[in-house]
Amino acid sequence: MAETTVYRQKQANESSPKGQSGFYRNVILPSKTMKEKTKLPLNQIKNAAIAYEKQSTLRKEDTEKFRSSLQRQLSTDMLRNGYHHSFRELCAILAWQKDDRERLGAEHPLHRRPLLDAEPDKLRFLCQYLNKAEEAERRCQYSNMYHNYLELAAYFLKSDDRWLSDYFYEKSLTVAQTYSQFDPQLAAEAHLNVGLAYERRGDLMKALHSFIKYRELSEDFENLKTDASIQLTRLYMKLAQRRTDAQSLQYVVKAYEASAQTGDKKVENETSYKLGQAFLEHGDVDSALKYLHRYYNYCQDVNDDEGFGLASEALAICYQKKANVEKSTEYLTKYLQKVSDKEGDIQYARACSALGFIHNTLGQYDSSIQSLSKAYSISLANSHADLDRNRVLFGMAHGMKLRPFFNDHIDRKNTKELLQWKCTRHESFLTQPQP
Amino acid sequence: MATTEIVYPLAFPKSVAHKCEICGKTASRMCAKCRVTYYCSEEHQATDSNGIHDKICSTLATIRAKQPFLPSEEERRDRDREIREKKLRLIEVTRMIGERHVFQSRYDAAIPAALASLKLAIEVHGPRSVELIPSYLVLAEASLGLKQLNQCWEYLSQAQYTVLQQQDHAPPAITSQVARNMAQLSIARRDYDEAARHLANDIYDASLFYGTEHYKVAGGYFLLGKVFKLMNRLEVTESLYTQVTQMWYNHLRRLLQSRVVFSDMEAVLGKQDNDEDDEENTTNPSKLDLATEAEAHNTLQTLLAYRHETSHGPTTLQELNKIYHCFTILYFLARDYIQVRDSMRNIKDCSVREIDEDQQRILKFLDQLNRMKALMKRQQQEN
């Protein structure tokens, strides 16, 4: 659409009533009239002049700030103060991130997040702390340097930049290792951090190595030592859970050894229980017994009811496997007694179901039906998680009880009787002898 | 010595008024050999011929001669293309000569050379092109050497304005070079903050272009160290100079590896090449061109002096050894074999395995060389 104005635009060679040419009117006159129009009163002119003088002029560096990218600005600031290592680190980190992204391909979901150089806060923080680290290095204050790297790592962990945080943890480790004569505690802590980082990433073997080193280095420092042992125990248990073959048993054993060094009874005994369970799974009942007894005694000492229950159950299962019925029933009855004051409790339900299970396997179906019905009703009332298990056991007990009669009927080919039974499902049908 | 003919300014046709090569005033003398170069006085003619004119006299004659009329468009185009190519080559040659003069500190000879290259570049590329900047930089360095700070400032401003006009399309290599020269000027003017700012820009651009560990960036770090030294912040200088040493060390070692490997190959293949042929056959990366050589030499000298000044701490011995080793490689690459042995003797107490390996290689190469030379001599005697 062509532009149209409200008023007619005068032609170029048209002259005004005063005889002035178009040029004079359009070029010369406006500048003059503008000046006349915009002449301020004297007061305002003076104020404007004072304000202008007070304004600080932009120096060259400030103008450059407007023209350059953030990365360039930060780099030149760092270089101007002589922090060239920080500059090179920054370049390396940015290049690394770009290479990583290219390597993984354009559509990797992990890399939908913005590139580092698009996030000003992180960049500024990074540069600031890199400068501090370099300053500390120049002055040979290596513990300061270590702490700066640690801060950086923690910051990037919070903002979920795992790759950077791991990188800085490893850097702090190298610093601590090279200058470990000054402060061996730092080296131990550094190993701990690196181990945690590996664990987060899922690389459990490397994490194991780091934790072992941590343990070695923290020989002289009490609290670090216990901490190291606890971490080791935890890691061994994780490893054991991952593998299902004989290797896992070894791991649990190692976990127990580590826990023995913690000096913390609770951890030690819990590991002892887990060890017992593991032995049980692998069929080594005797060693299982040993460890489970230990756990049992501990729970008695500490009055830990739930643990006590777990221990009793496990012991009962062991003895039952060894076909030592009295012992297992003994343990279970003790357990029942202990928890009998809390009738409606889950402990009680567990105790009953354990007892029922034992009876089941022993073939004493009546008594098992008794205890299991109790367990079932309690868990039904509480809508407990064990409900399914109790249901199954209860049903099993009933079924097992009726099994010989069922077989009997089949042998005698009493299909009519069986069908009748199936209609009513009453017990007496089957157990009644044939008339 | 150049021959001259007196020229009468009034004797030219109407619109022709020849100007002096150097200063631009009306000319009254003419070079008799090429007959296309004019000067206003004897001194200017002398400086020009010392600087550049002796070398390019004949080429200038063909370029600047009045071209006869050629009947066809094609022939004219061909002729124009030939002249343009000659000019391009001449630009390169004159600039290199100018740079060489600067490195050998013959600043008054450098100026005519750089001026010639500048004029030719303006003729070929136009007055605002990026191609002019290297010539401006040579001029700036020359005038800095002659302590004419204002002149230097003018040339550098011209260069920087050309860069600005490109609106960020200028290649970072050139912007970094400009910034480096501006920094040198600021150092001469004792404005250390400005110098630091320019050097920061220089290092950033050079790192972006070459990569952060390249030896070209070392020049920027070196100047930055000098600035901090002048500002009396010696711990920064320390760390910067260590970095510079490291960069040059890596680069020279890499050159040495490629060069010695090549000559090992030759020996293995049983060729009995002359020493000269070896030099020509080496690939580009293993050649150390004149500019880099001079720069490395100057830098290493200053670093050595600095280390001798501030010798404290156990790391200094390592650093000194590194610098001496760099010198060794430098002399070796420049085929200055006597110096090689001298500087190898300077290294004492060295526990770095790499330096020992390199020295073994160099000694082996020298032995081979001597044997080959003996062989050649005997062959010549037999003939």
TrEMBL record, chain A:
From its record, what is one biological process in GO terms? cilium movement
Where are the compositionally biased (Polar residues) regions? 1-19
Outline the segment boundaries, as ranges, of region: Disordered: 1-24
Q: Does the keyword Repeat apply?
A: yes
Indicate whether Cytoplasm appears among the record's keywords: yes
This protein's name: Tetratricopeptide repeat protein 29
Q: Which GO terms describe its cellular component?
A: cilium; cytoplasm
Q: What does this protein do?
A: Axonemal protein which is implicated in axonemal and/or peri-axonemal structure assembly and regulates flagellum assembly and beating and therefore sperm motility.
InterPro entries for the chain? Bac_ResReg_Asp_Phosphatase, TPR-like_helical_dom_sf, TPR_rpt
Localization recorded for this chain is: Cytoplasm
Q: Which Gene3D superfamilies match?
A: Tetratricopeptide repeat domain (1.25.40.10)
Q: Where are the TPR repeats?
A: 188-221
Keywords from UniProt, A to Z, are:
Cytoplasm, Repeat, TPR repeat
From TrEMBL, chain B:
Q: Which residues form a coiled coil?
A: none
The record places domain MYND-type at 20-57
Q: What superkingdom heads the lineage? A: Eukaryota
- List the InterPro entries: TPR-like_helical_dom_sf, Zinc_finger_MYND_domain, Znf_MYND
Q: Which UniProt keywords apply?
A: Metal-binding, Zinc, Zinc-finger
Q: Which Pfam families match?
A: zf-MYND
Does the keyword Manganese feature in the UniProt annotation? no
Q: Name one GO molecular function term.
A: zinc ion binding
Q: Which PANTHER family match?
A: ZINC FINGER MYND DOMAIN-CONTAINING PROTEIN 12
What is the official name of this protein in its record? MYND-type domain-containing protein
